[in-house]
Amino acid sequence: MRLVLLSGGSGKRLWPLSNDSRSKQFLKVLSNSEGEFESMVQRVWGQLRKNDLVNKAIIATSKSQVDMITNQLGSNVTIVTEPERRDTFPAIALAAVYLYSIEKCSLDEVVGMLPVDPYVEDKFFQRVKDLELALNSTNAELALIGINPTYPSEKYGYIVPKLSDDGNILKVDYFKEKPDIKTAEELMSKQALWNSGVFAFKLEYIIKMLEDKGLPTQYNELLEQYHTLHKNSFDYEVVEKANDIVALSYDGYWKDLGTWNTLTEEMGSQQIGKGIMGEGVDNSYIINELDIPIVLLGIKNAVVAASPDGILVTDSETSPKIKEYVDRISDRPMYEERRWGWYKVLDYVKYPEGNEVLTKRIGIRAGKNLSYQVHYKRSEIWTIVKGQGVYIVNNKLSHIREGDVVHIPLGMKHAIKAATDMEIIEVQTGSELIEEDIIRLTTNWADIEQLARI
Length: 454
Known about the structure:
Elements: E1 2-7, E2 30-31, E3 37-38, H1 40-50, E4 57-62, H2 63-73, E5 79-82, H3 88-102, E6 110-115, E7 118-120, H4 124-138, E8 142-147, E9 158-161, E10 169-176, H5 181-189, E11 193-202, H6 203-212, H7 219-225, H8 234-237, E12 245-250, E13 254-256, H9 260-264, E14 271-272, E15 275-277, E16 285-288, E17 294-296, E18 302-307, E19 310-315, H10 322-326, E20 335-338, E21 341-350, E22 356-364, E23 372-374, E24 378-386, E25 388-393, E26 396-401, E27 405-408, E28 414-418, E29 422-430, E30 439-442, H11 445-453
Parallel strand pairs: 1-4, 1-6, 4-5, 8-12, 14-16, 15-17, 16-18
Antiparallel strand pairs: 2-3, 6-11, 7-13, 8-11, 9-10, 9-11, 10-12, 18-19, 20-21, 21-22, 22-29, 23-30, 24-27, 24-29, 25-26, 25-28
Helix pairs in contact: 3-6
Domain Nucleotidyl transferase: 4-266
Domain Mannose-6-phosphate isomerase type II C-terminal: 338-441
Protein name: Cupin domain-containing protein
């Protein structure tokens, strides 16, 4: 059995810590067994390792999340990257074709699909393994995992089994998306299950479907045609058209941590970052990524979250509504994690004359490097405030350490590698400070040194 973890979305319900670059699964607010903070994706990856599944797993994601995944899980993780976001069916199809044509998996291979951010016990992944037996013993097209509901929830979709079912493997009758309370109560009386978003199929099922649609089943060919695929969900394109679906029930702990009120219930601490819980504070949380303190006084059932992207003050139960308001905010992300470290935007100014100035604090981990790149709309000044390493500007390699200042003119190729953990204050000045003005030549340092000699 092979596993594909689906990592997507922007997690706007966890603003201001989550944004288009740092989705909810990357927020380090959960506590591990050593008392250290970890993210949802780190937690799930650790659980896969405990269940001997990590070597069978790959991650399917968009380009904007690759650096974050590498930063948090390491460089040995197999990542299938969408050239552009086109919803869940194209992403799952690309992952399936990768397993088929690149990793040469058999058409009889069972492939399990999991969201990258479930909050579950370790034993949940033993139930995931049972999906293989369910498919092989029933010859169903799809096998799902449903959660035995503990209350009539309006937040989750439901899997409704056929009433004649009895036994471990249930035949699915139909699905119901996020019902009202009364309908949810009726569904529970029919032994309906919460839909966990975990399902499996045999590889042949998807490969044949792509062939029937006239789509390529070779990975590189599908990559080239990816922009032509319809933006459809897997539910719409596959699940709703399937004739034979079975489900396994799971009665252990399961939770969707997609909103502040659910996430804070599982956090390792009521306070992360600088802050003071004062007199009269009850059932409230501070999550603070800023370098200034937050003080709470006489407040109950509150969540206060602060990051360079903004500040949220909300009643806990009201917090899921934040998505409605975040859609009005179109500012660039102010903090990102990358494969080499992280950066935080300190200041941004656009002058009436059209010139822009952006100031960043950049952290580069020891042994890591920025890509060999060039810009045609901006110049940069680096001030090294911590650590040492080497850098290349204008094909010249030099050593660099704290206190040094480097000027990188417009149109000049440049790169830097940290020998120890480094921090840099970078000031960008130019006519347009945009991602499209970063022309990356290579990220491999040996290649960078070779190119610099040419």
